[in-house]
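[Automated response] Your request has been received and processed.

Submitted sequence:
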Amino acid sequence: MDYRYMHKINNEYMNRLSEAVLCLNSIEECKQFFSDLCSKTEINTMAVRFEVARLLSEHHVYNNIVLMTGASSATISRVNRSLYDGNGGYAMIFERIKNKSSRNSQQDITSGLFQALLYLNSVEECYIFFGDLCTNLEINTMSQRFEVARLLYNGCLYNDIVSRTGASTATISRVNRSLKDNTNGYINALRHLYPIDENKK
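Generated structure:
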């Protein structure tokens, strides 16, 4: 499926999220950013899907993948469809990993996912990869959270953010806590993308 025809995705927000992902330079930076952006369960879900895709690409059978990852057969089937009938995002990353480095067998699956993100080189490639890895709803949820973070960073009030993004006050409060907890995930990306003009202080 061509990433351009994923009509349900909010392209404005996804473009900004993609730009944030592209400014990440290490597995540690990815960990910080996604720890702010997502819950531990959400990160683990994406990491398991990526690991399932890797194992499928290496021709492991379903039963072995269930034992190795704990993924359900439904998850494996979904990933299999994305791997062979999706956007080509998984194949693109696996080819780059194969060409640029040997995989660390001791690497946990979350670090494996974050390493994969470092191989993305453009907004278009982010659409392709996340389109295979996630549902449209999951993509919109993540990109909405980053848009909320951007607006909070720019000093917007809660009511204005609700009006502009449709985010709940609970989501805005959660994002605001991440911004203020000095975890650096959101902040580092936002400072990179939207540097403060010292002359305007």
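Summary generated for your ticket: Residues 40-57 form the longest helix (18 residues). The chain is about 70% helix and 0% strand.
If you did not submit this request, please reply to this message.
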